[in-house]
TrEMBL record:
Gene3D superfamilies: 1.20.1530.20. The chain crosses the membrane at residues 6-27, 34-54, 60-79, 91-116, 122-143, 186-212, 224-243, 276-294, 300-324, 336-358, 364-384. The keyword Membrane applies. It is a multi-pass membrane protein. This is Putative transmembrane cell volume regulation protein A. Residues 491-570 form the Transporter-associated domain. GO terms for cellular component: plasma membrane. Keywords: Antiport, Cell membrane, Ion transport, Membrane, Transmembrane, Transmembrane helix, Transport. One of its GO terms (biological process) is proton transmembrane transport. It is found in: Cell membrane. It holds the Pfam family Na_H_Exchanger. GO terms for molecular function: antiporter activity.
Length: 595
């Protein structure tokens, strides 16, 4: 008994370690990380070199559901309101209507091409309908592909939020197929869908606020906060499912609400959840790989490849185009979002549902889905970088901080302590002026700590520590970036997107942008800024005005403000037009413009 237990522990931990270490392959060769984990599971399984016999589908689905709930909670927790504001409409439409359209097209193809019944085809389409957040996040964030903000936000929010709809559709179709005598199938489907989505949303909002209240009001040991928040998230998942709602919708919504709140220890929570999410992702991928039987794949390989082709070249592009049509995305953006529709662990996990539901040909669903996922990861996962370059989506990367620590101050204010290492070809190293708001509090040079007035001119290799509001961190990134992203006087992030006349009345600016200002109407823009600044103004000095920033662009010989820049936010930064068009998308857009 003990020998068997220790053997299972040794095998499980070894697979976990091997999976983590082989992520180096993914980083070096750009392979989707999910593909690496699935491959290890296949090699360790009954048809691989490991020869492990494993066919407990119910246990896989039970563990996978808990793992997916935790992954979705973390996805919601890390979904910023800025990303939602930048792409909320298109992303949520893709995550709902887009999944339904994709599932419908794949389902109809399976019905007419392979002879599946309409319900069976819709079940297969629902299983394969959602994109994989883990694969998308890895390739866009960790994989070194830096793309345009609006496109990146759309893909990240969509991939984080579309799993609940696919799970909802799959669950409903499995129930309808398991009970074919159920009257009014379409009505039952609509009632069940609205019930699960509605209850999931309601309990998710409630769960998010409960998590915030518990974390902010209870005085616990620091190490217990991650455990209690995770426990509350899983509790929200369980209660919502118990009353007939979608627990997956609930945990994602709870994560969004809790992750965008300001409370003590949120940075440590993010780090804990990030590590735990990796553990659950790896474990879930390994179990799904172990459950698969590659010796059965030849019987489903044609269906799997055809489903992947329909999904990649027909269903996904049509769904994306229809969903993004009202939002005036460029054809290149629409084409790239269509291509980055990677399928992954959620689809394979949902393919277990027909097995646990005892449906006929349930193993065929699983094998078709597994092959389609492998094709998606091989075809799309390895081509994202060249396709992004082809469609003009890649932008110069920004050098971020080496270390970022949040400093929470009394009264609800929020600052961060950001550490940078000065690289040789950065603007700061080549003589650029360091704005007053970016003055470092501490400089580390050759192992010694120095204050600013003792350090003299900043040197390459210095580690500097700056206290700053979080909203100014992107500006610091530009100042300390490498030469590839060096800034000049036209950089909108540092000097504003518009130039203002500093002699104009501040009241006129407030009326133009709807800012409620308590400042006297007789003040000019320059007088307001000089009053807010401590000491003589310098180029680069910033003064917040509502949700915007007023920036000193230039000063005259007497030290007075000569030119002012206005920075509205990253969502208003200009995007240069690319001349390339995917031909069939161009035709669709041309047709739309003629109507």
């Amino acid at each position: 008994m003990l020998t068997s237990m220790y053997g299972i522990i040794i095998v499980g931990s070894s697979l976990l370690i091997i999976s983590a270490l082989t992520s180096i392959i993914a980083f070096r060769f750009g392979a989707p990380l999910l593909l690496v984990f699935l491959s290890i599971g296949l090699l360790a399984g009954e048809d691989g070199i490991g020869g492990i016999q494993f066919d407990d589908a119910e246990s896989v689905y039970f563990f996978g559901s808990i793992a997916l709930a935790i992954i979705l909670y973390d996805s919601g927790f890390n979904t910023k309101l800025q990303s939602l504001r930048l792409s909320a409409g298109p992303s949520l439409l893709l995550a709902t209507a887009g999944v339904v359209i994709t599932a419908s097209i794949v389902g109809l193809a399976a019905h007419f091409v392979f002879g599946f019944s309409l319900l069976e085809g819709m079940l297969l389409g629902s299983i394969i309908g959602s994109t994989d957040a883990a694969a998308v996040f890895f390739l866009l964030r960790v994989g070194g592909v830096t793309i345009r903000d609006r496109v990146r936000s759309t893909l990240e929010v969509e991939s984080s939020s579309n799993d609940p709809i696919a799970i909802l559709l799959t669950t409903v179709f499995v129930e309808l197929l398991a009970r074919p005598d159920t009257p009014s199938g379409l009505l039952a489907f609509a009632i069940t869908a609205f019930q699960q989505a509605g209850l999931g949303l309601a309990f998710g909002v409630l769960g998010g606020f409960v998590i915030i209240q518990v974390v902010t009001r209870l005085n616990l040991e620091a190490g217990l906060y991650p455990l209690i928040t995770l426990g509350l998230a899983v509790l929200c998942f369980g209660i919502t499912g118990m009353v007939g709602g979608s627990g997956f919708v609930a945990v994602f919504v709870a994560g969004v609400i809790a992750g965008n709140a300001k409370f003590s220890g949120i940075i440590s929570l993010r780090k804990f959840q990030d590590s735990l999410t990796w553990v659950f992702q790896i474990a879930m991928f390994l179990l799904l790989g172990l459950l698969a039987s590659p010796s059965q794949f030849p019987d489903a390989i044609v269906q799997g490849i055809v489903v992947a082709a329909v999904l990649t070249f027909i269903a996904r592009p049509i769904a994306v185009w229809l969903c993004l049509l009202p939002f005036n995305y460029r054809p290149q953006d629409t084409a790239f979002i269509s291509w980055v529709g990677l399928r992954g662990a959620v689809s394979v996990l949902l393919a277990v549902l027909p097995i646990t539901g005892g449906l006929p040909s349930s193993q065929l669903y699983f094998n078709i889905t597994f092959i389609a996922v492998l094709v998606s990861l091989l075809l799309q996962g390895w081509t994202i970088r060249p396709v992004a370059r082809w469609l003009g989506q890649i932008v110069p990367p920004k050098t971020g901080p080496l270390e970022k620590i949040e400093l929470e101050l009394p009264g609800g204010t929020s600052h961060e302590l950001v550490s940078y290492r000065i690289v040789p070809d950065s603007p700061i190293a080549t003589g650029a002026r360091l704005p007053r708001w970016a003055r470092p509090s501490l400089i580390l040079r050759d192992g010694a700590s120095l204050r600013l007035h003792d350090a003299g001119r900043l040197q390459t290799g210095d580690h500097i520590y700056i206290f700053t509001p979080p909203r100014l961190v992107p500006m610091l990134d530009r100042l300390f970036a490498s030469a590839a992203t060096s800034v000049d006087e036209d950089d909108p992030t540092l000097f504003g997107q518009f130039q203002l006349d500093p002699t104009q009345p501040l009241e006129r600016l407030a009326d133009m942008y709807g800012v409620r200002s308590k400042v006297g109407s007789e003040l000019t823009i320059a007088e307001y800024m000089e009053d807010r600044l401590s000491g003589p103004p310098e180029p680069g000095d910033r003064v917040d005005f509502g949700s915007m920033d007023l920036i000193v662009r230039d000063i005259d010989g007497s030290g007075r403000i000569k030119a002012v820049g206005l920075y509205l936010g990253p969502e208003y930064e200009p995007v240069d037009n690319q001349p390339f068009f995917i031909r069939w998308l161009e035709a669709l857009h041309s047709f739309r413009s003629k109507k």
